[in-house]
Amino acid sequence: QNIHKMLRSGDEGHLVPVVIPKDERGFGWLFLLGVAAYLFGLALFAGGIVAGLAILVALFFIAAAGIWLWLGAIVEIEQGTTGVLSSFGKIVGTLSPGRRRLWWPWLKVEFIVDTSTEIPYSAPVLACPTQENVPLKSIEFFLKFRIQDPLLFVRNIGASNYDLVLSSAVQDAIRRRSRRVQTERAYDLRG
What we know:
Elements: H1 3-9, E1 18-19, H2 28-45, H3 49-72, E2 74-77, E3 81-87, E4 90-95, E5 98-101, E6 107-114, E7 119-122, E8 125-129, E9 135-139, E10 142-145, H4 150-156, H5 162-179, H6 183-188
Antiparallel strand pairs: 1-6, 2-5, 3-4, 3-6, 7-10, 8-9
Helix pairs in contact: 2-3
Protein backbone atom coordinates (compact mmCIF):
# COMPACT_ATOMS: atom_id res chain seq x y z
CA GLN A 1 0.00 0.00 0.00
CA ASN A 2 1.00 3.61 -0.40
CA ILE A 3 -0.01 4.79 3.08
CA HIS A 4 3.47 6.12 3.86
CA LYS A 5 3.52 8.00 0.56
CA MET A 6 0.04 9.43 1.17
CA LEU A 7 1.00 10.61 4.69
CA ARG A 8 4.11 12.34 3.38
CA SER A 9 2.72 13.87 0.17
CA GLY A 10 -0.77 14.55 1.50
CA ASP A 11 -2.84 17.45 0.25
CA GLU A 12 -0.93 19.49 -2.34
CA GLY A 13 2.44 18.46 -0.88
CA HIS A 14 1.53 19.17 2.75
CA LEU A 15 1.88 16.56 5.47
CA VAL A 16 -1.40 15.05 6.59
CA PRO A 17 -1.80 13.37 9.97
CA VAL A 18 -4.53 10.88 9.00
CA VAL A 19 -5.16 8.65 6.00
CA ILE A 20 -8.38 6.74 5.39
CA PRO A 21 -7.26 3.47 3.78
CA LYS A 22 -9.28 1.54 1.24
CA ASP A 23 -10.50 -1.82 2.44
CA GLU A 24 -9.18 -4.13 -0.25
CA ARG A 25 -10.47 -7.29 1.35
CA GLY A 26 -12.98 -8.83 -0.99
CA PHE A 27 -15.53 -11.59 -0.78
CA GLY A 28 -14.48 -13.39 -3.96
CA TRP A 29 -13.39 -16.35 -1.86
CA LEU A 30 -17.10 -16.96 -1.10
CA PHE A 31 -17.73 -17.49 -4.81
CA LEU A 32 -14.99 -20.13 -4.86
CA LEU A 33 -16.61 -21.87 -1.88
CA GLY A 34 -19.94 -21.79 -3.71
CA VAL A 35 -18.39 -23.42 -6.76
CA ALA A 36 -16.82 -26.06 -4.48
CA ALA A 37 -20.20 -26.75 -2.83
CA TYR A 38 -21.79 -27.10 -6.28
CA LEU A 39 -19.08 -29.55 -7.34
CA PHE A 40 -19.57 -31.60 -4.15
CA GLY A 41 -23.30 -31.74 -4.95
CA LEU A 42 -22.45 -32.83 -8.47
CA ALA A 43 -20.18 -35.54 -7.07
CA LEU A 44 -23.00 -36.85 -4.87
CA PHE A 45 -25.31 -37.43 -7.82
CA ALA A 46 -22.75 -38.33 -10.48
CA GLY A 47 -20.97 -41.59 -10.55
CA GLY A 48 -17.58 -42.95 -11.46
CA ILE A 49 -14.83 -40.78 -12.78
CA VAL A 50 -17.00 -37.62 -12.91
CA ALA A 51 -17.56 -37.82 -9.13
CA GLY A 52 -13.85 -38.26 -8.46
CA LEU A 53 -12.92 -35.40 -10.78
CA ALA A 54 -15.64 -33.15 -9.24
CA ILE A 55 -14.33 -33.84 -5.72
CA LEU A 56 -10.75 -33.14 -6.80
CA VAL A 57 -11.69 -29.84 -8.45
CA ALA A 58 -13.88 -28.92 -5.43
CA LEU A 59 -10.91 -29.49 -3.11
CA PHE A 60 -8.82 -27.27 -5.37
CA PHE A 61 -11.46 -24.51 -5.14
CA ILE A 62 -11.61 -24.86 -1.34
CA ALA A 63 -7.81 -24.54 -1.14
CA ALA A 64 -7.88 -21.50 -3.47
CA ALA A 65 -10.64 -19.90 -1.33
CA GLY A 66 -8.60 -20.54 1.82
CA ILE A 67 -5.48 -18.95 0.34
CA TRP A 68 -7.52 -15.98 -0.91
CA LEU A 69 -9.06 -15.50 2.55
CA TRP A 70 -5.67 -15.89 4.27
CA LEU A 71 -3.95 -13.34 2.01
CA GLY A 72 -6.89 -10.93 2.15
CA ALA A 73 -6.88 -10.87 5.95
CA ILE A 74 -3.39 -9.34 6.12
CA VAL A 75 -3.32 -5.73 7.31
CA GLU A 76 0.01 -3.96 7.66
CA ILE A 77 0.44 -0.90 9.84
CA GLU A 78 3.70 0.89 9.05
CA GLN A 79 6.28 1.99 11.58
CA GLY A 80 5.49 5.40 13.05
CA THR A 81 1.75 5.07 12.47
CA THR A 82 -1.16 3.66 14.44
CA GLY A 83 -4.23 2.02 12.97
CA VAL A 84 -7.68 2.79 14.33
CA LEU A 85 -9.72 -0.43 14.40
CA SER A 86 -13.49 -0.55 14.05
CA SER A 87 -16.08 -3.26 14.42
CA PHE A 88 -19.37 -2.74 12.58
CA GLY A 89 -18.30 0.90 12.06
CA LYS A 90 -17.76 1.58 15.79
CA ILE A 91 -14.22 2.47 16.83
CA VAL A 92 -13.04 -0.23 19.23
CA GLY A 93 -9.28 0.23 19.56
CA THR A 94 -5.92 0.77 17.95
CA LEU A 95 -3.44 -1.40 16.11
CA SER A 96 0.26 -0.88 16.74
CA PRO A 97 2.75 -1.05 13.85
CA GLY A 98 3.26 -4.46 12.32
CA ARG A 99 1.44 -7.09 10.32
CA ARG A 100 -1.95 -8.26 11.58
CA ARG A 101 -4.70 -10.52 10.32
CA LEU A 102 -8.29 -9.35 10.45
CA TRP A 103 -10.26 -12.54 9.83
CA TRP A 104 -13.75 -11.23 10.44
CA PRO A 105 -15.22 -9.08 7.67
CA TRP A 106 -16.75 -6.63 10.17
CA LEU A 107 -13.32 -5.70 11.54
CA LYS A 108 -11.75 -2.88 9.56
CA VAL A 109 -8.91 -0.35 9.83
CA GLU A 110 -10.82 2.93 9.61
CA PHE A 111 -7.88 5.35 9.86
CA ILE A 112 -4.11 5.28 9.87
CA VAL A 113 -2.76 8.07 12.07
CA ASP A 114 0.81 9.36 11.89
CA THR A 115 2.01 9.43 15.50
CA SER A 116 5.74 9.94 14.98
CA THR A 117 6.00 13.06 12.80
CA GLU A 118 5.71 16.63 13.96
CA ILE A 119 3.24 18.15 11.52
CA PRO A 120 3.77 21.82 10.57
CA TYR A 121 0.69 23.97 10.39
CA SER A 122 0.41 27.57 9.24
CA ALA A 123 -2.63 29.64 10.19
CA PRO A 124 -2.90 33.23 8.92
CA VAL A 125 -5.26 35.53 10.83
CA LEU A 126 -6.61 38.65 9.11
CA ALA A 127 -7.84 41.90 10.73
CA CYS A 128 -7.28 41.10 14.36
CA PRO A 129 -8.00 43.99 16.83
CA THR A 130 -5.74 44.90 19.77
CA GLN A 131 -6.69 46.13 23.24
CA GLU A 132 -7.28 49.66 21.91
CA ASN A 133 -9.41 48.27 19.02
CA VAL A 134 -6.70 48.98 16.44
CA PRO A 135 -6.89 46.24 13.78
CA LEU A 136 -3.67 44.42 12.94
CA LYS A 137 -3.68 43.64 9.22
CA SER A 138 -2.45 40.07 9.43
CA ILE A 139 -0.75 37.75 11.85
CA GLU A 140 1.22 34.76 10.63
CA PHE A 141 1.26 31.87 13.04
CA PHE A 142 3.27 28.70 12.63
CA LEU A 143 2.53 25.66 14.76
CA LYS A 144 3.97 22.17 14.98
CA PHE A 145 1.91 19.43 16.54
CA ARG A 146 2.25 15.74 17.15
CA ILE A 147 -0.57 13.30 17.78
CA GLN A 148 -0.16 11.45 21.08
CA ASP A 149 -3.52 9.68 21.28
CA PRO A 150 -4.87 8.64 17.86
CA LEU A 151 -8.29 7.60 19.20
CA LEU A 152 -8.82 10.95 20.88
CA PHE A 153 -7.66 12.76 17.73
CA VAL A 154 -10.01 10.82 15.45
CA ARG A 155 -13.01 11.06 17.81
CA ASN A 156 -12.69 14.73 18.76
CA ILE A 157 -11.15 16.40 15.72
CA GLY A 158 -11.80 13.89 12.98
CA ALA A 159 -9.81 12.74 10.02
CA SER A 160 -11.53 14.77 7.33
CA ASN A 161 -12.01 18.14 9.04
CA TYR A 162 -8.90 18.48 11.19
CA ASP A 163 -7.77 21.47 9.10
CA LEU A 164 -11.01 23.36 9.74
CA VAL A 165 -11.03 22.57 13.47
CA LEU A 166 -7.37 23.44 13.94
CA SER A 167 -7.66 26.64 11.90
CA SER A 168 -10.68 27.78 13.93
CA ALA A 169 -9.04 27.00 17.26
CA VAL A 170 -5.78 28.76 16.32
CA GLN A 171 -7.56 31.85 14.98
CA ASP A 172 -9.75 32.06 18.07
CA ALA A 173 -6.72 31.79 20.38
CA ILE A 174 -4.78 34.43 18.42
CA ARG A 175 -7.74 36.82 18.43
CA ARG A 176 -8.21 36.43 22.20
CA ARG A 177 -4.49 36.94 22.79
CA SER A 178 -4.26 40.00 20.54
CA ARG A 179 -7.21 41.59 22.43
CA ARG A 180 -5.01 41.61 25.55
CA VAL A 181 -1.97 43.17 23.83
CA GLN A 182 -1.50 46.91 23.56
CA THR A 183 -0.93 48.30 20.06
CA GLU A 184 2.61 49.55 20.80
CA ARG A 185 3.61 46.13 22.09
CA ALA A 186 2.08 44.45 19.03
CA TYR A 187 4.13 46.58 16.63
CA ASP A 188 7.28 45.82 18.70
CA LEU A 189 6.67 42.08 18.16
CA ARG A 190 6.73 42.49 14.39
CA GLY A 191 9.54 40.42 12.93
